[in-house]
Structures are given as C-alpha cells and as structure tokens.
Amino acid sequence: MTQDAIERSTFGFRPLYMQVRDVMMSRLIDGIWKPGTIIPSEIDLAREMDVSQGTVRKALDSMTAENLLVRRQGRGTFVAEMEESNILFQFFRLESDATSGSKNFPESQVVSVSSRNANEFEMSSLKAEVGEKIWHVERRRLLDGQAVVVESIFAKESSFPALGDTAPMPNNLYRLYSETYGKTIAKADEKLKAINANANDAKHLNCEQGTALLLIERIGFGLNGEPLELRLSRCLTANFHYRNTLR
Amino acid sequence: MTQDAIERSTFGFRPLYMQVRDVMMSRLIDGIWKPGTIIPSEIDLAREMDVSQGTVRKALDSMTAENLLVRRQGRGTFVAEMEESNILFQFFRLESDATSGSKNFPESQVVSVSSRNANEFEMSSLKAEVGEKIWHVERRRLLDGQAVVVESIFAKESSFPALGDTAPMPNNLYRLYSETYGKTIAKADEKLKAINANANDAKHLNCEQGTALLLIERIGFGLNGEPLELRLSRCLTANFHYRNTLR
DNA sequence: GAGTGGTCTAGACCACGGT
DNA sequence: CCGTGGTCTAGACCACTCC
Asked: At a CB cut-off of 8 Å and minimum separation 6, what does A96 contact?
C-alpha cells in the first residue's frame, strides 16, 4: 500500500489498521492466501504496506478474533482451516449429555441430492434470483452411533457448480466449500425452535411422531458476507444438547 | 502497583497487562467500581500502577471485549450495567419470528417463591453444600402479550439472603443481583433441548400437552467465576425463536 | 480549550519453535 | 542461533465530548 492509497479525510475516515485489514481480507477472499498456509510475517507485511508493525498487528489481531487466522508464537500466522477439530467448537454445537462424552465429528448418511428452482424462502435466505437453480441435499447424521439429526441443505448452483455430482459427498461440507470452491464459511446466523417430529423424522431418527425436536435454521455466510448455504437441521435431543455461552 | 509487585520469572510468567487486568477485575468484584460509574482515565490508571498507558489500554480492551466495561470516546470508561437495552442482546435471545418485530424486554408474572434444601442437580450446578437452602422462583414470561416462557430459577440463600422477601419481584433479576447484592452475572453457559409440554406447561402457555418446547438450562456465573443462578426456561417457540451467531 | 479515548509510530526486549 | 509472534514503553497526533 502506498501513502497515496491512504485516505485520511475526516469525511470518510477509516483507520489505517482497518485499511490494512481490508487488503488482507481481500487476499483471503481472492484465494491468494489459502486455508492452512502461512502468511508473511508482521515485519514483511509492515514493510510491504509501508505501515508500522503495530498497525499490521492490530489488523491481524482483529482477524484472529474472528477465527479467520491462527497465530502461533515462534512459527507464524496461518489461514484458518475447516478442520474437524476447529469446526467442532465453532460450528457444531451438539454434544452428548453424558459428561464423559468426548466430542466427536458426526457421521453423515446422504439420503438424496437433487436440484430444483428456488422457492420463496430459499430465494430470500440465499439472495437467489427468481427461478434460480438450487441444490438440495438431504442427509442423516449420527453421533456416537445414534441417528440424531435429519438435515436439509440448500445452496445455489451458481455458487457451487456440479456440487451434486460430488461422490462420495463428504462428511464435512464446509471444508468442501472451502477447498474445492474457494468459498469459506466465515460466519453463520442461526434461529432455533422446538418442533414436533413428523413421519419422516420419526422414520429417520427412530422415534415416535410428535417427539420434540430442535430445529436449527442456519444461514452460512462467506468471507465477503454473501449468504452461501441454508441448512435446516432437525435434532433429536433426548441424549444430546446444544451448548452456548453468553457474555 | 509497585515494581516489586510485578512477577516476571519464566516459571509463573503472567503478562503485565494481565496483572493490571487482575487488579481492575478485583475492583469490580469488590464493588469498588460500581456498575454505571466512570472509572479513572487511562493516564491516571497508568500513573497509579506505574505502567505505560498502552499496557493499561490492553487490559481495558480485554475487559471491554467481555462486556464488563464500556468505553466512550471523549467521555471515559464506564462499568457495564444490567440495563434492558444491553441485556436484550447479551442474555435474552428469544425474538419474534416477524421480521418487523422490534425487540422488547419480556414482562414477568411470578407464580411462586419458596425455599428448600438443594437437590443433587442444584448442588452440582450451583456448587452448593448438602442440605444448603436454595431459593426457587417460578414465573411466567410474556412477550408481545403472549405467554411464551415458564421459568424456574434457583439460587443459593447464602448468595442472596432475603431474596424471597423482595416485593415486588422485579422483571430484571440480573439487575437486582447486581445492584442489591453486588453480584454481577458476567457469563452464562446454556444447554438447549427440545421437550414435550407437560400439563403445567400447557396450562401456563395455553397450548396442548405434548407441544414441542425449547428448554434452556442456564447457569449464570459471577465476575469471579462462581455459579450464582440456575435457570430452567421452557419456551413456546411457535411464533418466536432463539437467535445465535457463530464465528 | 481541556480532557478523554483512538490511532500510529519506532524501538526494545521476551518467549517460543525450529535449525 | 535465528526468525517468529508477544509484551512493553514513550511519545505524537487525531476524533470526540463537554464546558
């Protein structure tokens, strides 16, 4: 970044470290810095952008706080990966009621993969156009060997071409999005409700119709804020719960 | 803080800004700095503790990130309060499905207040001794005029003496804990499940028995990490949902 | 204008991981 | 030993609020 590129008018004031952050964000979005790889050291970045090391540090810290980067003292700064171990605490919040239960990544069984025109709800959730094609993946997820979740996943074909041809469909879809399509889920908004199991739920989860289920409606957003995936998870919480921490 | 008070051995190394933070945390815990009041400026704190302003700033920033302090440019740094407007985004996550619905603080109707010996679950949740007396408050909460939540609240008498004599029982209990007892809820862990409504739920929530409800089991912790309150909320989510954001 | 928090810099030294 | 991120300092200037 040259001095000329730095805007400093009171009118559209944006702190220097935010401008540095913007540059680094665009490198993530454009795939110049790929998940799992190391990025240049603070000193190199400071030299390159003609800014002090402390300013680069502040930008790096803000991105680390959002789990976009991982810093390791003595080694360097790395782009965060969609690893099971990371994702387990970040995006997968179901865990066993048993205190002894170590957290495992859920096994997935794909029920169906199809494509059709977006309906109203999908259009508004994914910012899709009228008549736009949408992938629909249905799957069942098992935890500790028990069928626990029935899941419907929706994503635009334009975002993930040929997604439906992926075989086998991997367990960890977020990693597929990131590694194959260069689209990283950076944030997700969820709405939780309690619902009564229907016939399909009862069949897949091996429970009675009417059993209370936890419905999680999640929209996953990319690094640039674009909605990428809509996911409706129907969870049997007899032996499991959704954990959350409030501060 | 004098130079002598600073421990710097490699063995039990603790960064200076964390030591500064510890001092400031103890002032919150001891009630020397009360919610809503202003605390000394960065410069004054730095002088008093004999460290640089930047070190104080780092300690203040970490506490601001945890919603313990609020910083206002040009005015000063304040101790966070348990205000409705704050608490709505921090600790109350139920909101109307209607997009137009502005968020309101729920109205509460107390059903009963009693005291009895702690059972196993309450003992482990609240770190209570065998036979220790526990307050039990039952209440119903209304949102937009609809009965939405049936709530059981448990807290140790030793933590909140004469809590049961409070009349009227206020709508915002966390503020009562903070203002009357000097015990601020700084963090809460939640476990969410879906359950089927029982006869009591059906009566209070005006729904059928068996209707799916969202059960929220929350433990609220004080500034020093001590568990202060156990709360079991049974929520009718036909027209409402629990919102969450994952990063 | 005085005082607060917010940004930015330059430089020093420490802790950690690998060579 | 070197290079990395982590801590700490001192000082400058900017943006905001209130008097």
From this structure: A103, A143, A144, A239, A240
Neighbours of B231 (CB within 10 A): 19
Q: Pick B192's closest partner by Cβ from A65, A192, A211.
A: A192
Q: What is the dihedral of CA A119, A121, A122, A124, to 10 degrees?
A: 120
Nearest residue by alpha-carbon distance to C1' of D8: B55
User: pLDDT by residue (tens digit) across B168-212?
Assistant: 999 999 999 999 999 999 999 999 999 999 999 999 999 999 999
Residue A66, chain B, CB below 8 Å: the answer is yes
* Chain D bases closer than 7 angstroms to a protein Cβ: 3-11, 14-18
Give the CA-to-C1' distance from B51 to C1 in angstroms: 28
SS3 annotation, A167-182: CCCCCCHHHHHHHHHC
- Mean pLDDT by runs of 10 across the 247 residues of chain A is 37 88 98 98 98 98 98 98 92 89 86 97 97 97 96 98 95 97 98 98 98 98 98 98 97
CA–CA distance, B237 with B214 (Å, rounded to integer): 7
When pLDDT is cut at 50, 70 and 90, the band that residue B12 belongs to is low
Residue pair B145/B164 in contact by the 8 Å Cβ criterion: no
CA B28 to chain centre: 14
For residue A27 the two structure tokens come to 């490198």
Strand partners, B146: B143
Query: Does the pLDDT at position B102 exceed 90?
Result: no
**Element (H or E) spanning B57, and its range?**
helix B53-65
pLDDT in tens, B210-226: 999 999 999 999 999 99
Q: Write the single-letter amino acid at B57.
A: R
Provide long-range contacts, Cβ within 8 A and 24+ apart, for A176-184.
A177/A82, A177/A228, A177/A229, A178/A35, A178/A81, A178/A82, A179/A35, A179/A82, A182/A31, A183/A159, A183/A222, A183/A228, A184/A28, A184/A35, A184/A82, A184/A222, A184/A223
For the sheet containing A76-79, what is the strand order? A38-39, A76-79, A69-72
In whole angstroms, what is the distance from residue B51 CA to residue B49 CA? 6
User: Whose CA is closest to B82, among B174, B218, B186?
Assistant: B174
SS3 content of chain B, % helix, strand, coil (to 5): 30, 35, 35
Binary contact (A247, B212; C-beta < 8 A): no
Q: Which of A190, A214, A241 sits opposite B246 (nearest CB)?
A: A190
